[in-house]
Design goal:
The protein is mainly alpha-helical. Among the domains are: about 20-90, no CATH class; about 90-150. Helices cover about 40% and strands about 0% of the residues. It has helices at about 35-45, 50-60, 70-85, 90-115, 120-150. It is elongated, with a radius of gyration of 46 Å.
Length: about 230
């Protein structure tokens, strides 16, 4: 008679505790604080920059797949850490964020173009193309912002003349001569004809240089008198 071996029961596997994210904003309590001090502390915690950002993230991701794993205290701590590093001069997180945003906008531009080219009606085609070009423009603006963060803004400065020893004339402050004559328009005035002006002066007498008219003598007559 054959002996049958009993099946061994599987060893119990230690179950790992399930991660349960917290959805409650942590509010610090001050030991021995008065109600007014505790109220100010709560207001300070809820109006902090990282708290405002966390509220937006929770509202945006609350019903998504990522929202199930979103932990409010952990999000607050991470945002506070990033802000502290940025204040200290570490811009790696900001640079990575801008680069990822530009790439996401590029993907959005590509998808809108793909959906736009298969549209049959002109309004739908135009709407998709307009949104695609907006995504492209925003991606370009994001890359320009990233370049300014990494290299600093471009400064357009005038030429600096530096002389060693002898003085040098610097004409940077003088305005450039355009070569065109400026025409100044006189103010509007009431114009009158020259013969309508009234001369209110009295009549003057004849002077020595204006003798009375006399007949021309024989000495000054013409030799050939034409009739």
């Amino acid at each position: 008679m054959k002996r049958t071996r009993k099946a061994r029961a599987p060893k119990p596997v230690a179950s790992t505790p399930r991660y349960v994210p917290s959805k409650v904003f942590p509010v610090r309590s001050l030991a021995g604080a008065t109600p007014a001090e505790q109220a100010r502390q709560i207001a300070s915690d809820l109006t902090a920059p990282e708290a405002s950002a966390t509220r937006v993230i929770v509202a945006a991701e609350g019903k998504s797949v990522a929202g199930e794993w979103l932990d409010v205290p952990g999000t607050l701590a991470e945002l506070r850490r990033v802000a502290t590093n940025t204040t200290a001069g570490d811009l790696s997180h900001a640079e990575a964020m801008l680069m990822n945003q530009a790439q996401a906008l590029q993907s959005l531009f590509t998808r809108l173009i793909e959906r736009g080219v298969v549209q049959e009606s002109l309004p739908q085609y135009e709407a998709h193309m307009r949104l695609a070009l907006k995504a492209q423009a925003q991606s370009r603006a994001t890359l320009e912002t990233l370049a300014n963060v990494r290299n600093g803004p471009v400064i357009y400065a005038r030429q600096a003349n530096v002389a060693a020893g002898a003085p040098m004339q610097v004409n940077n402050g003088a305005p450039a001569h355009t070569g065109a004559r400026q025409i100044e328009n006189p103010p509007n005035q009431l114009l009158e004809p020259s013969d309508d002006c009234l001369d209110d002066r009295t009549q003057s007498g004849a002077g020595a240089c204006d003798p009375p008219m006399e007949a021309v003598g024989a000495k000054h007559r013409a030799k050939n008198i034409r009739r």
